[in-house]
Amino acid sequence: MTDTASGSVARGGKRPRKGLRMKRIFTKPGVHPYDEIQWERRDVVMTNWRDGSINFEQRGVEFPEFWSVNAANIVTTKYFRGAVGTPQREWSLKQLVDRVVGVYTRTGVEHGYFASDEDAEIFDHELKHALVHQVFAFNSPVWFNVGTASPQQVSACFILSVDDQMESILEWYKEEGVIFKGGSGSGVNLSRIRSSKELLSSGGTASGPVSFMRGADASAGTIKSGGATRRAAKMVVLDVDHPDIEEFIETKAREEDKVRALRDAGFDMDLGGKDIVSVQYQNANNSVRVSDEFMKAVEKGEEFGLRARLTGEIIEKVDAQDLFRKMAKAAWECADPGLQYDDTINDWHTTPETGRITASNPCSEYVHLDNSSCNLASINLLKFLKDDNSFNVADFVKLTELIITAMDISITFADFPTEKIGETTRAYRQLGIGYANLGALLMATGHAYDSDGGRAVAGAITSLMTGVSYRRSAELAGVVGAYDGYARNAEPHKRVMRKHAAANDNLRAVGTMDAKIHAEASRQWSECLKVGEKNGYRNAQASLLAPTGTIGLMMDCDTTGIEPDLALVKFKKLVGGGSMQIVNQTIPRALKQLGYQQEQIEAIVEYISEHGHVVDAPGLRKEHYEVFDCAMGERAIAPMGHVRMMAAAQPFLSGAISKTVNLPESATIDDIEQVYMEGWKLGLKALAVYRDNCKVGQPLSVGNGAKKDEPKAAEPEVKVIEVNRPTRRRMPNQRPSMTTRFTVGGAKGYMTASSYPDDGLGEVFLKMSKQGSTLAGVMDAFSVAISIGLQYGVPLETYMSKFVNMRFEPAGMTDDPDIRMATSVMDYIFRRLALDHLPYDERAALGIFSAAERAAQQRGEDPAALQEAVDREALAQSAPIEEKPKEQPVKELTLESHQRFTADAPLCMTCGTKMRPAGSCYVCEGCGSTSGCS
């Protein structure tokens, strides 16, 4: 795409211009990229999830016709600048892209990046074409800030530092607060702080890093609750040889025990509940920095020394296997801590003469110097899949060159939250190019995610991306100079480049697709080493794999980052409101690639649409099932499959990978130990795990009592005593009743609940299908069983404990403002019955509240005020429905309604939609909010 020109065109007629010659990829000379697109006007209206009121409205926005409703909604609400309703408000994607690209192009011209004005125009047009066609996207801060009156912050990832001094600790608090205020996240290693087992100069005992974590956590929680549209994201790291490492490991697990105790005592411990703020250390991801020395000690069953922070002397020895077990046990209980493999990270470090890598950003993909930052951009891989299912290697190479050029330009004009971060970033110019839609690309081409072929494709693409990036970085160094810290780090930087190239040489082709990509990657690495030897490099880091949460939705990606597909069916938003269920478009393409005929494809797709999985799909051969394996559902990818995919990409990344390895609820501590050990052996830089339902704040949390892998206590001697047999209390012929129409995950039904005239629920009837159908018969039988149980005196609370949180299809969004989400019809029914028939105190113990009660909680009212709200609501509901009709807002179907299992994820604090995993974070498909880097 480009060549380096030494002096082809005069600048202002005074002297030759040294810069890049640009060649076109997607655009045509004399034709603006916008003129080749069919544009259309749309209305974006977002409703409040609590009461259906409109909380955002902008009509007549302009987007390409091929952009989905969801992508347009997210860009309009999150990225358009200017006050809504004023002439200054952006209303077209053209304006947004022009605002951002204009700054990049002008800065590139001013700083001599281009050989001529024509080259600058080509850069401008190609960048605009790629962005409006969703071929790639910059990270969110670029869209928020570039071209506005705000500071031009372009980075999403920050690493801070803290020393063993009170002034430094307080400065850490301040710097984190500034970063959180801007909606970004940061990470820090606290290992320089003396442990609670060491003495101060005054003779007293040090507080230790865990105590200072408490203050930082409170600060993050306060800033988050102060109106930010996304949670404060942070990472806290502690070295494995720190004397306080055991306290650090168990910190969050102990807090989970507190949550259980408070929840059982009747406090509101739901996510967003008013009492959850008493739980500490919840605003950070925790990671232990493990060394090769420690991991080898674990393998050999040896002791490991914990060292004083100031002197480095060993002050305590611990059993390495016991300590490793505690890490796995804590992760089994609460998903923290993750591991960061210190020696691996620093073995791939390009600038060790400047300092070691000690920490990461919140999602663990950016690992570099303290007090630094990284701006990100991600490529939509599916855009390079041609009609013949081959990968467009040439265009991928050219686009990567374009993106790296733009990203480096951004550092030239960028602002930073602190001067220290600004100095380091401008001196080392860390970039983070990555990709999204890998899972969709593999499925569309007939590759199973957990297969040699799938890993070969992923490895080859990652190698090609990074090889081109560093080759372009070396070319930029020849035009505008190497990064300031290159001279002192030239030899280690070139050594790391050779390590990447050697890893590429070790790749073995499995199929035609990856063989062609790998061949080009080999050429790129060869050229990279040659040009780098001559010019040096412009950037200390070039690539990583981020979560791609919001920008993945902006690009209409089916999968995020390195993740596999979440499910085989999705729900597409419609222009007029609502949504429709669609089978992933990659599935028909995959079936065609696997050799199926059109009639077979249609039958299989219809089966998937109905069942949500491929097991027993008509005509589908069992050996092809693995191609359609997903992150969740009937055929979920095994945990080690995720680890192996990360290992396939890691040798070709400057940074690391944001990804959580999900394990089923049945996983044991041994399973987590194995994942952590294999991550180290396979050369990963960082690894986090999440066992389904391990968090108390999530559905189906593990209750009090022994853990699953712990032996049960011996059962006490059983005494048989006689009790009076219960008698049935039949309902009178005339009794008060209430009929509720409901919708769960798109399935409609009716529930009639009858009460005794004096007190108490005594009868429930359910209808969800036509009379005579199997479902109708099952619901009738269930209704009779429940009704008889109630009449024999079974407390409603007993049914609640059995049926609330039960999971099966249909599941998802409901049309009930009091119960936003339901994991099944039974979950909804018994939550509704609890709201209608149980007093507040009993429901509070179960975490079930009405919309009015939740609103009162947010206003800070006490339980007495909440009870009054319940009473007022009950009086209002006692009136006949016809007298006070209430129009319910349109509710969206969710992906999870076609999954046998659902992902543990919080509700979006902005729009109330269940979020979904994106790397180590969560993203809301409704409004684009994320819980970490975007």
Describe this structure in words.
- This protein is an alpha/beta fold.
- Among the domains are: 1-133, no CATH class; 568-629, no CATH class; 737-880 and 887-898, no CATH class.
- Strands 5, 6, 7, 8, 9, 12, 13, 14, 17 and 18 form a ten-stranded mixed β-sheet that branches. Strands 19-20-21 form a three-stranded antiparallel β-sheet.
- Helix 5 packs parallel to helix 6, helix 9 (320-334) crosses helix 21 (669-681) and helix 14 runs antiparallel to helix 15.
- The longest helix has 29 residues, at 452-480.
- The two termini are 29 Å apart.
- The model is unreliable at 6-15, 225-230, 697-723 and 877-902 (pLDDT under 50).
Notable features of this structure?
934 residues; alpha/beta; ten-stranded mixed beta sheet; three-stranded antiparallel beta sheet
Helical segment tally? Answer: 27
Distance between the ends:
29 Å
**Helix- and strand-based class?**
alpha/beta
* Shape type: globular
- Helix proportion: 25-40%
Return Rg in Å.
29 Å
Instruction: Report the β-strand fraction as a percent range.
Output: 15-25%
The whole-number mean of residue pLDDT values reads 85
Could you list the spans in which at least 5 consecutive residues all have pLDDT below 50?
6-15, 225-230, 697-723, 877-902
State the major sheet: 10 strands, mixed
The strand count comes to 25
Concise structural overview:
Its EC number is 1.17.4.1. Helix content is 39%, strand content 16%.
Topology:
Blueprint: E1 2-11, E2 15-22, E3 39-47, E4 54-64, H1 69-78, H2 93-110, H3 117-132, E5 136-138, H4 140-145, E6 157-159, H5 166-181, E7 185-189, H6 209-225, E8 234-239, H7 245-264, E9 284-290, H8 292-300, E10 303-307, E11 314-319, H9 320-334, E12 338-341, H10 342-347, E13 372-380, H11 393-413, H12 419-428, E14 431-436, H13 438-444, H14 452-480, H15 486-505, H16 512-535, H17 550-554, E15 569-573, E16 579-583, H18 586-593, H19 598-611, H20 639-649, E17 660-663, H21 669-681, E18 686-691, E19 737-744, E20 747-755, E21 761-767, H22 774-791, H23 796-803, E22 812-816, E23 819-822, H24 825-837, H25 840-846, H26 851-858, H27 863-877, E24 916-918, E25 921-923
Parallel strand pairs: 6-7, 7-8, 8-9, 9-12, 13-14, 17-18
Antiparallel strand pairs: 1-2, 3-4, 5-13, 6-13, 10-11, 12-18, 15-16, 19-20, 20-21, 22-23, 24-25
Helix pairs in contact: 2-3, 2-11, 3-11, 5-6, 7-9, 8-9, 9-21, 11-14, 13-18, 14-15, 14-16, 14-20, 15-16, 18-19, 23-24, 26-27
